[in-house]
Amino acid sequence: MHPILKLVAQRIALGLLLLLAVSLLIFLGTEALPGDVAQAILGQSATPEALANLRESLGLNRPAYVRYFDWLGGILTGDFGVALTNGQDIGQAIGQRLGNTLFLAACAAVISVPLAILLGLIAARYNGRWPDKVISGVTLSTISLPEFVAAYFVIFLLTQVFPIFQPVAMVFPGMGFWERLQAVALPVIVLVLVVLAHMMRMTRAAILNVMQSAYIETAELKGLSPMRVIWQHAFPNAIAPIVSVVVLNLAYLVVGVVVVEVVFGYNALGQYLVDHVAKRDLPVVQAVGLIFAAVYIGLNILADVIGIVSNPRLRHPK
User: Fold this and answer.
1) Cα gap 62→55, rounded to integer Å
2) Residues contacting 217, CB < 8 A, separation 6+
3) Which topology term describes how it sits in the membrane (predicted)?
4) Nearest to 104 by CA among 171, 150, 174, 157
5) How far apart are CA 269 and CA 124, in angstroms?
6) Torsion of Cα atoms, 97 then 102 then 105 then 111, to 10°
7) H/E/C letters for each residue in the chain?
């Protein structure tokens, strides 16, 4: 077997094993949550008999390992079960909100990825000079802020000082594309601020590392402009680590937006998860947690595969 195919197969197998282990951790973690599901559904005035009957009907009296394998089997067949608090089909509810999460992540990625690469190239071009220091200082300042602090600062700035946007990101079925874009503008700005610095710093570091190569010196001796040397010679050879860090940040944009969604009241998976954690609705928490884990692990595998494929020593083994 070709070394690349072997490594890719190993990464996929490890990813599946990791996802299985994460599913077990999610199940055990939700089982350890304080409180009683039956009590949360029926309220404090429920009688012991009513609580016992509800626990029996929900299958909560069965051993934990039996419930885990039943839950895992349902997930593998596409059956996420129903929410305990309202009886709604979890798969259908997740499908409605997953589109909103992916739309928010895509909008943030479309802005942050090219902007981070451009700023990284400029910082590398003017390494150690004032453009590099300004870009590095500003981006590191934004990434140092907790997400909720950045969110409330953006809300104050763009809804109170400069009343341009609404503070709540309200979306609903049937909204037009431009209306939806305007609704998610504030959370997109916050997410861009959060992920920009990491990608920019990696782009800058990768370019500066390649700039030490002999062929870069040859290109400079030919009289090419510094920006042309970076764009045509350094950037193509630094693309592998840049793409890897971009993919990892895309994973964050999908699974790490819970705080942003809650702050802006955005009806997506993060908000859905938080709402049902408060209600101790275990099937919902388990399903959303597993989807987040699958997305994160899947994109990490993609980043590993890109790194493997971009390695010329593996593409052309001796």
Assistant:
1) 9
2) none
3) Multi-pass membrane protein
4) 171
5) 38
6) -130
7) CCHHHHHHHHHHHHHHHHHHHHHHHHHHHHHCCCCCHHHHHHCCCCCHHHHHHHHHHHCCCCCHHHHHHHHHHHHHCCCCCECCCCCCEHHHHHHHHHHHHHHHHHHHHHHHHHHHHHHHHHHHHCCCCHHHHHHHHHHHHHHHCCHHHHHHHHHHHHHHHCCCCCCCCCCCCCCCHHHHHHHCHHHHHHHHHHHHHHHHHHHHHHHHHHCCCHHHHHHHHCCCCHHHHHHHHHHHHCHHHHHHHHHHHHHHHHHCCHHHHHHHCCCCHHHHHHHHHHCCCHHHHHHHHHHHHHHHHHHHHHHHHHHHHCCHHHHCCC
- Render pLDDT for 64-80 as a digit per residue (tens, 0 to 9): 888 888 888 888 888 88
Q: Could you tell me if 97 and 269 are in contact, meaning their C-beta atoms sit under 8 angstroms apart?
A: yes
- List, for residues 166-192, the tens digit of each pLDDT value: 888 888 877 888 888 888 999 999 999
Q: Which CATH architecture has domain 102-280?
A: Orthogonal Bundle (1.10)
**Is the whole model's pTM more than 0.70, yes or no?**
yes
Q: At what angle do helices 90-125 and 282-309 cross, to 10 degrees?
A: 40
| Calpha distance 122→313 (Å, rounded) | 30
CB of 5 closer than 8 Å to CB of 309? no
- For the stretch 131-165, pLDDT in tens is 989 998 988 888 888 888 888 999 999 988 888 88
Domains of the chain, by residue range, sit at: 102-280
Span 97-128, pLDDT tens digits: 888 999 999 999 999 999 999 999 999 889 88
